[in-house]
Amino acid sequence: MKSHHGVAFALGLSLVVVADAFAAAELPRSSPEEQGVSSAALLEFVDSADRDITGMNSFMLVRHGHVVAEGWWSPYSAASRHELYSLSKSFTSTAVGLAIAEGKLSLDDDVLKFFPDDAPAEPDAKLKAMRVRDLLAMSTGHDAERRLAGSDQPWTKTFLAQIVPHKPGTHFMYNTSATYMLSAIVQRQTGMTVADYLRPRLFDPLGIENPTWGTSPQGVTLGGYGLSIRTEDIARFGQLYLQKGKWQDKQLVPAAWVEAATARQTSTGSNPNSDWDQGYGYQFWRSRKGAYRGDGAFGQYCIVLPEQDAVVAITSGVKDMQAVLNLVWDKLLPALGPAALAAKPRDRVNLLSRLSGLKLATVSGEPTSALAAEISGMRFNFPANDQKIEQVGLEGPDDQGQFTLIWRNQQGTEQRTPCGHKTWLKGRLAYGSFPEQPMAACGAWTADDTYTARICFYETPFNLTLTLKFADDRLMLDSESNVSFGPTKRPQLTGTR
Known about the structure:
Elements lengths: L1 H10 L1 H11 L15 H14 L3 E8 L2 E7 L9 E2 L4 H14 L23 H5 L2 H5 L18 H6 L15 H15 L3 H13 L5 E2 L13 E3 L1 H12 L3 E2 L2 E2 L3 H8 L22 E2 L5 E5 L3 E6 L4 E7 L4 H12 L12 H12 L15 H4 L3 E3 L7 E7 L7 E7 L4 E6 L5 E7 L2 E14 L2 E7 L6 E9 L2 E8 L11 E4 L1
Antiparallel strand pairs: 1-2, 1-11, 3-5, 4-5, 6-7, 8-9, 9-10, 10-11, 12-13, 13-14, 14-15, 16-17, 17-18, 18-19, 19-20, 20-21
């Protein structure tokens, strides 16, 4: 947000007005101690997150409406958006609540009512009984989720064609397809996609600039995933809910909706040590410690702690999502005191220094190898493969001692990826199933014949480690993702000159 003020100053008064509108929505900053939080305890939390959680991307703590700590693990940054995955569901829930408040629909409306052309010819009694509230509470009566992506029919029709074995409202099953149906209902009733509907009602008032949200082939906002916003935007959303839907003296979301959406509407289990067994609301999870949250795959969190008047926003790329929440409960929650603390300037300086220097681990190894000169500029050709790589080469070192990966995909497009040594170099790349997007890369020689590169797609939780082993006229290429919805390690590819 601060960058807007600089641009406005340079370009004149008209932009100042726009900048000030955004600045009005910016969360105020404060020292931790002023808001009853120990800087030393926050430092311990950050140290633990950096040491014990491989894949933290960002963190922000809001206490009493003030940001008291914020940090990004480079190459992630405050300015970059981040894919939210299922944390998107909580935003779709908000759209439903607003549409209900505007009289566009109700919790007790039958789902079939909205899709007469997509319903089966003879819907059974359980499908007829499915209501909007069942979609919201993940209690549609299904016992398996039908994947909508790739369907050759409208996604709403694919959803309604599923067998409903349980009475709606009696059986919890996490179901992203149900959230898509909510998005489709809002669009049917308002004439706008959820993304467009929320812009003047939520995104603009909160100062959430340029959110991106994918759509289905039918032009419906994905609903259950696909929203990308910044870390502070997540925190603002959480603060709005903490304030019962009120923002700067304006009631953006009805307080009654906030209460209902974040209350326990469905039982999800009985394990007292699991944050996924505390119940589910309307596209929000109940949590331990009296908290609730929206969350998304690989560790995207908007955690609201009403008893402590606090919000925690976290983005990450982790396999163990419970470990991140455990860290919040074990290290961060005890740091939230009941009253302001005496100033601790040294502790605060130490915390700020630590937060400003956070960085994802780069590849450990040598800056060059005796083999480098021999293989620099060589091209290795690969047979057809699912990573869509046709040719790979490695050039370097250049005058700055850097190496550059050379890629050519199966469509003949060549890309160059400079890799920093002990630092991240930003650029753009399309790789395998990843469309072209911002990324940062680093690399090092991890053996005399092996160069290892790491590529971080820093608007997502994903990073990719590539190992290039050179042997005679061959290149063995291994690739592994930090997290994935399937296998993280791909089959080795062998290229030849």
